[in-house]
Structures are given as structure tokens and as C-alpha cells.
Write a structure and sequence with these properties.
mainly alpha; Farnesyl Diphosphate Synthase; two-stranded antiparallel ribbon; 76% helix
Length: 370
């Protein structure tokens, strides 16, 4: 391994007390490992089909654009916090969650018709441009989407490969049920999110369940559980960390809902107002519809799902969300979940670096702008 994570964690006492410092140093440690692994996989394709490099290189480029690396960090710090010491052993498990996330981002962008991800063109738009530049026959748009689906599938297969490697190293740990649930829940959540606007009067609680399945569990709760299980955490510790992850995962998704409407494009790294223009019935939008007067509901419904809405129409829709009290309500919901997460974490015996990370993560979410 190129770097020792323990040394990185201890390199700056001031930075170690903040989540952003811990997460930054974690990225410095894991990214060369992740990109190196992708490079090795790409070489495997050179013999049988050199043209496959057109796909594998794009996957590497997409991963190399950045991202918070939150999911692998949660795996790592849960493992460390529960007494795990073998950094080489936990690395494949941590990387598997990042590539699972990569696959889901690529497919999600296709479903949303998104043009920007992590400050650059989405995968399907890149492949669409390739087709157009090469002047190949057929639809450039269809080609772009089709190849991006394959790119996502490749990332998923890599995630499974890394998980299987990790499972072989932790053969006595019950990792499989957690990982498969993580993979399946997010797909079900995505489906429920897509169909929610077409269902008759879905309740706030039904939309919260979509939120838990689509993001909360796979983004926070399951990665924490994977790391804790790999370390052989006691049942009581696992239960408390799971409760922390559940509450924090919901808070993260509710924050995403806010950023999807009120974020700044340059900061978020993708187009904002997407939730309204794409017609997503998030908890934020649901609350705005429930709390608005007839005029506000009419205006918001006219913009919801209107991909051709102009900036003035979107501005008015945002104003409705604020005036209804929906924004303030979702901010209150976030705070209540952060308080629940803090209570779950209180008294749990963790190593100091992991405790600092998990506590700091709550502060990071409060200030999060992307």
C-alpha cells in the first residue's frame, strides 16, 4: 500500500478534529488505490479486445473526477472504530461501495436526462458526443444512453468483484446479506421515486420510505454496517451504529432534496432545480404542495416536471416552496435526525479517530453545500 492511513490521520492534530480533514486524508489514501485497481482491470481487456479501452478509460475518468468518497470512508471508519486493524483487508470492501455508487450515478443520470455530473458532462452525453463526432449511423442520443448503461454495468460488476474479494478475507463475517440488501434496496427506492408522482396522493411517510431505500440505507446505513460487521462488532455496537446510520442517511437525503432546488450549480457540480423540472415528488416538494394555497399549488404543479421551464418560472416555484414553509420544515426534519444520530452515537465505544469522524460528519452535513 502506498500510504499508511494511520500516519495520514495523525499528520495534523488541527485537521483531525474536523470531518473535512479526516475525509480529505481518507481520499488521499484511497483514490490512488482505487484508480490503480481500475488501471489493472483495464489491462485485462487489452489482449482480447483493445477497443474495450474506450470503455474502461471512460470509467476511470469518471471515477477520477472526484466525489466525496463518503461510502468507502464510512466502511473504513466503522471498521477502524470497531477495532479492525487490517487496512489491506478492508480496502476492497470500501472500494466496492464507491464503484456501486458510480454505477448508480451513471444510470441515474440517464433516467433523469441529466447533462452535468461532478462538474463535467454525464457519461451518456460523452458517448453521445463520440457518436456524433465519428459520424456513425443511427441515433447519437440512443447510442450515448446505451453505452452509458454498459459503463454502469461494468462499474457494478467491478463492485461485485471487489466485494467477493473482501468476503473471502472476512469469511466468518455475515457480509453478504448486508451487501445484497444494499444493492437491492436502492433499485427498489429508485423505482418508487420514479413512480411516486403518478400515484394517487402518496403520504409523507411513503415518501420518507422512498428516501430511506433510495439513498439513506445505501449511502450511510449499509456502508457503516459493512465496516462494523467486517470488524466483528458486538451486537449492541452494531445496533447503535445502524441507528446512527439510519438517521444520518435520512438527513443526507433531505439535504440533497434542498440542494436539488436551492443549491448553486457551480458548487453542487450538477444542474440544480432538477427535482422540480424532472418532476420528482420529494418530501420537500410534497410539503410545499400540502402547505401552499391554491395559487401556489397551481404554480408549482405547472412547473413540476416541466423540463422546458425557464429561470423565471423556476424562481417562482422556489418562492412557493419557501413561502409554504416547506423549506423550513425540511430543515427542521434534518435537525431532528441529526439529534437522533447524536443520541445513537452517545456512549458507543469507538477508536478516537472514528469517533471524531462520525461526530464531525454531522457538523459537515449541517454546513454542506454540495
Amino acid at each position: 500500500m502506498d500510504h499508511d492511513m494511520t500516519t495520514l490521520l495523525k499528520s495534523s492534530a488541527a485537521a483531525a478534529v474536523s470531518e473535512s480533514g479526516s475525509l480529505t486524508r481518507f481520499r488521499e489514501w484511497i483514490e490512488p488505490q482505487l484508480l490503480g485497481w481500475l488501471d489493472r482491470k483495464a489491462k485485462e481487456f487489452v489482449g482480447p479486445a483493445a477497443e474495450a479501452a474506450e470503455l474502461t478509460s471512460r470509467l476511470r475518468e469518471f471515477v477520477d473526477r472526484g466525489g466525496k468518497r463518503l461510502r468507502p470512508a464510512l466502511v473504513f471508519f466503522a471498521y477502524r472504530g470497531c477495532g479492525g486493524e487490517d487496512q489491506e483487508a478492508i480496502l476492497p470492501l470500501a472500494m466496492s461501495t464507491e464503484l456501486l455508487h458510480t454505477y448508480l450515478l451513471i444510470h441515474d443520470d440517464i433516467m433523469d436526462g441529466a447533462a452535468v455530473r461532478r462538474g463535467g458532462p454525464t457519461a451518456h452525453r460523452l458517448f453521445e458526443a463520440d457518436h456524433r463526432d465519428q459520424r456513425w449511423a443511427g441515433s447519437s442520443e440512443r447510442h450515448g444512453e446505451s453505452v452509458a448503461i454498459l459503463l454502469g454495468d461494468l462499474a457494478h460488476s467491478y463492485a461485485v468483484e471487489l466485494f467477493l474479494e473482501a468476503r473471502s478475507r472476512f469469511a466468518a463475517r455475515p457480509l453478504s446479506d448486508c451487501f445484497t440488501a444494499m444493492c437491492q434496496e436502492v433499485v427498489l427506492g429508485q423505482y418508487l421515486e420514479m413512480t411516486a408522482p403518478h400515484r394517487e396522493n402518496p403520504s409523507k411517510e411513503e415518501l420518507l420510505e422512498v428516501l430511506r431505500l433510495k439513498s439513506g440505507r445505501y449511502s450511510v446505513e449499509r456502508p457503516i454496517a459493512l465496516g462494523a460487521l467486517a470488524a466483528g462488532a458486538r451486537d449492541q455496537v452494531l445496533e447503535r451504529l445502524t441507528a446512527y446510520g439510519e438517521a444520518l442517511g435520512e438527513a443526507f437525503q433531505l439535504k440533497d432534496d434542498l440542494l436539488g432546488v436551492f443549491g448553486v450549480s457551480d458548487t453542487v457540480g450538477k444542474s440544480v432545480d432538477s427535482d422540480i423540472a424532472e418532476g420528482k415528488l420529494t418530501v420537500l416538494v410534497h410539503q410545499a404542495l400540502e402547505r401552499s394555497d391554491d395559487r401556489g399549488r397551481t404554480l408549482l404543479r405547472a412547473t413540476l416536471g416541466n423540463r422546458t421551464a425557464n429561470e423565471d418560472e423556476l424562481r417562482q416555484a422556489r418562492a412557493v416552496v419557501v413561502a409554504s414553509g416547506a423549506r423550513a420544515e425540511v430543515e427542521r426534519m434534518i435537525e431532528s435526525r441529526l439529534e437522533r444520530a447524536a443520541r445513537a452515537l452517545d456512549g458507543v465505544e469507538l477508536t478516537s479517530d472514528a469517533a471524531t469522524f462520525f461526530v464531525g460528519l454531522m457538523a459537515f452535513l449541517r454546513e454542506r453545500e454540495h
